[in-house]
What we know:
Blueprint: E1 5-14, H1 21-36, E2 40-47, E3 51-56, E4 59-64, H2 90-96, E5 101-104, H3 110-122, E6 126-129, H4 134-150, H5 154-162, H6 165-181, E7 184-189, H7 192-202, E8 207-209, H8 226-233, E9 240-245, H9 254-266, E10 271-276, H10 282-289, E11 293-295, H11 301-310, E12 313-316, H12 325-332, E13 337-340, H13 345-348, E14 355-358, H14 362-374, H15 376-393, H16 397-418
Helix pairs in contact: 1-16, 2-3, 4-5, 4-6, 9-10, 9-14, 12-15
Amino acid sequence: MTKLLRVAALVDLPRSPLSGGHVKGWECRAKAAVRANLPLDLTIYFSGPEKSEDLSPTVHLRQLPPVFSTARLKFLPYIPDDTDLAPFHPALARELKNFDVIHTTDGYFAFSQTAERIHRQTGIPIVTSFHTDTPAYTRVFTRKTIETLFGSRWIAHKLLNDWRVPEQQERKKIQRLRKHLRCCAAALAIREEDQLLAESFVGAENVHGMELGTDKEIFGPHRRDREGLQKDYGIPSDEILILFVGRLDIGKNIYTLIEAMEKLIAEGQKIHLITAGVGPAEADLHARLKKHVSVLGFVEPKELGRLYASVDALALCSEVEIRSLVGIEAMVSGLPVLVSEKSDIARLFNNTRGMQVVSGGADAWAEALRNFAAQPEHRAAMAAAALIYANACVVSWEEAFTKDFFNTWQKAFAEGRRH
């Protein structure tokens, strides 16, 4: 009988229907592990009220209550996702000792710090993967918090311009990540900068690429239903439809898109924004764009597939991304993507013609959307290029999971036993 490799994957975020791409990606990997039928016993840990769910006899989802959740920090104006700030999680520590490999998905919070301690006590190898640019998000949200709490008062000027607190917090997160990498045996990364950082700690031979998969039954041009979409959401048939998918907050740069839309609406452009996601910018979207926006809130994957296949473009205006799951879903659907230059996402998609790079600021986004709306042949060419890229480069979740994660875990376990 083949011995199963016991792996614990740690996702220090709450799991719910409103969860973002990090959590959703791991839910997809769990389902892929079931379908792949590998010699693997996988438990994925999330933060939240204690709960266990068995997807199969060898694939399990576990929730453990946080020790000190950011949800307790009521004075903060907004946190995109609650996580556990405690330096150690005793309940998790007791369970981790039963695994062959521990996989961390960040290097900052309670789960990953607990994994480090267990590694030092037992020698269980740690593999890590880069999913979110937490240092950059820390800088963005620290600045937003200071501006919200103190406005234009002198203390805000001192904190932002003299003491540069947002940048200090970003550096602290980078230092914490480097400390975590010292405990790791291997790493999975997408961006070149993450690969180089990981190589400096675990060696180039132990740093591997990481792909995001997709479900081509849910996402694809066969899901197109333009007339039904317009009817269901009361959208005029003669308008260009722009889709935004993600959290409605400053971290995803939604306000740049709102301002760009305002400029186009003032010009009389027939353009309409659809948003799929939740966040504090919802009220501003309604107030500033009025009848020119449909704010859908949380959208089920099946309906999201219809949106991708039926609108004219995805606006991926976030300037802080590692690799966009929504970008992949859009391309698989044959949807052109307008993407922020600063995020460098286009390079990760091989600079496909299905993506158009937009420089920063509302004026640049307004110009890009204006030109996009005025050129139907360009839109069609981008849509065709998106499908060509997707057919050539986007794999299933099973293939991505087996090639990237399972193979890396096997190698880390074998190396650990040898040493």
